[in-house]
Input
Amino acid sequence: MKALMVMYDSLRRDLLSVYGGPIPAPNFERLAAHTVCFDKSYVGSLPCMPARRELHTGRYNFLHRSWGPMEPYDDSMPEILKKHGIHSRLATDHYHYVEDGGCTYHSRYSSWSCYRGQESDNWVADLAPTPTEFAPNQLSPEGATGTLREMRRHGGWQNMHNRERLHSEEDFPMSKTFEDGIDFLNRNGRYDNWFLQIETFDPHEPFTSPTSHFDPDCATQPDWPPYADVTEGHEEIEAIRTKYEASVRFCDRQLGRVLDLMDELDLWKDTMLIVNTDHGFFLSEHGYWGKGGSPNYEELVHTPLFIWDPRSGRKGVHSPALVQTIDLAPTVLDYFGIEIPADMLGRPLTQTLADDTPVREYALFGYHSMPVGITDGRYTLLRDVKDFDEKTYEYTQMPTHMRAMFSVEEMRTATMAPRFSYTKGTPVMKIEARPNPRFLHTLKGGDMLFDLQSDPHQEHVLEDAEQSDRLLTAMTAAFEENDAPEEMYSRYGLSSTGRRRNK
Output
């Protein structure tokens, strides 16, 4: 058995031509003709590393933890493959894997490589002082118009030095990542028992691509939106969207290289192919840039997903089944005939790929301590935080944030919590959570119910108490199934039965 995953970051479903969007993506259309294309695929935990923890563990991350590493008690799909004699390979340019908050992911694979230089990756060393007015390629501060914004002074300065290493298309981290994957396929495609994950940071911001990088007319135009309310005018908004489109076209071109090799090596006959992303990205929709504290609208949580299963051979169809990121790990394990761990709450999509058999009635999604949502594929309820005074906690044995270990001050709040149902009988630290304050200003307050069938762009809040109550009941049930801590019920105004699953 063989399996290949091609994973992107921040790839918008609704903008791809294969889903009826405005960005021409011929290779994604070619992909859809050879796979099952899911119309109701949703994220679980946001953003990047929480989503990747779900990719490994097949269970929600955000009810217990924010951004963090894999934990000692976690089930890891690529590591399980490795232990069963299946070579799992990661080729990536996602630099968060080699920071504190992602430090235990890549080592779960049999082998891995990481190509440097994306975003504010601390790669190129240049000690030149940052200019006082430095703000290239980033939008203007809140309240300013028609100028460029400095979003992250240090990160932007680092990114500029990283970009200086890009002299040809082959120099881009995404190109190197796909070249690594293609090399693996050329050398090992004829062998059996492997899982290859080609994962790129693109089209994550900043939206750098060969088209924009080497075009003097647009190289200095903004390509790095903040995580904030939109204050810019039409011209700047369109410039950012154009840069994003160029990045997506670059992603499409790289995908084509993989599809060409699938044809050349005749891998379709015996190789599962999964093409996915972690989440979307706001490009001014609903008045937002980026992601973070904004309500979890469709542009962020409704994702593209394509899967080819050579066993069923079903292709060129759109599946209406409701699926999530947590379903991918059990799907891969089931494909290789490996028993799915009991702690994986996602469902294998084997039968769904064959005939659209449903695997779930609801999909839960959200950020740790921040807004959450739930959908049944038609109705979506976006739930705001109800009690900001209710403290939440990080439950962990690995106290690191994205780029740093927990501070001494944070660790002084630590106590030992009772074990949870998924921690393999081990206790965990309970440390006071500190939600990012720069996200809080974007919270609008109040719940929002939408009927996606009549209002796919979520422009009109629906008043329907019966549907809201049904979805809240389902949300509570999902909290209970996932052994959510008691404070999470209070924070979101849910009624707990008090029946924790910890032992």
Summary: The first strand starts at residue 2 and ends at 8. The radius of gyration is 22 Å. The first helix runs from residue 26 to 32.
